[in-house]
Amino acid sequence: MSDATDARPYDALLLLSFGGPEGPDDVVPFLENVTRGRGIPKERLEEVGQHYYLFGGVSPINAQNRELLAALREDFAANRLDLPVYWGNRNWAPYLTDTLREMVSDGRRRILVLATSAYASYSGCRQYRENLAEALAALEAEGLRVPRVDKLRHYFNHPGFVRPMTDGVLAALAELPGEVRAGAHLVFTTHSIPLSQSETSGPDGGAYVTQHLDVARVIAAAVREETGVDRPWELVYQSRSGAPHIPWLEPDVCDHLEALHGQGAPAAVMVPIGFVSDHMEVLYDLDTEAMAKAGELGLPAVRSATVGADPRFAAAVRDLVAERAAAERGEHPERCALGALGPSHDVCPVGCCPARTPKPAAAGADSPYA
Per CATH, the architecture of 159-303 is what? Predict the structure, then answer.
């Protein structure tokens, strides 16, 4: 009797990510890709690029995606999941269109997509679906057979995503001096987005904040259970990049650290629940900028680990693949989820996480390539 994981009808998994520069000469071209169509002058891009130049012009995200690819392939092989894994990016090589072209050349016809964003939002979900539609249109224009692509559900509350973060908080607490550890506040952080995008995220609006709050509650409760200490916590935001007159989610993490210091908090643990891996927003905005603010305040602070290529996350992806494949075969698989919200939808409905300017989006109910 076979105990292999059944991926039918899918014949490939695509890891879809943001991309990042891999050397100083890549920084401005990469930022031009990210900001294309927004009319941002090159001088401003050079200024933003200083964050990357502090790290040799290299974003860690590509190396981290290579580690995740290796972890996924190792887990799939160990659990007899016969599903090749490819990788494509929105903004840098390997570009999404090139990867999909390679997949078509390899004979792939039913593709599952894992985006490196766990939550519902325009930039974290719908925009990736738009990228997929644009890439599929390019293949169609080249006369290539267009594969069907489906996107894995949001995995923000899957145990294989949440539990590694919980362990990261416990490890971070252990780094604090003993005299401040018990009173440390938990500072859950995620990428700020415009209020307009937050309010329209998910099928019914407001999903971005609601999902993060649910994960924060689960982790805070697990840490309380493990340590016996009921710690104050709050969800805060970071990495704002929009025009000053456009309202974005607040408070900013640095402002929150100042507030904690003013309240007499003895220490803080920053918990980047909004990020899959330690990419630039984590290394600069938290490890550099926020830690500098904490040092200036004299507030003991540490930052907990992201999930990255944790084997439990790789196993979670395998579980999500098997779950979605079973659903496509008409079965009713068990769907793992922690917290109060339950498992997310498989197929994004029409109007989910809408763009300011409507564009075709694949891997959803409104896909032109269903």
Answer: 3-Layer(aba) Sandwich (3.40)
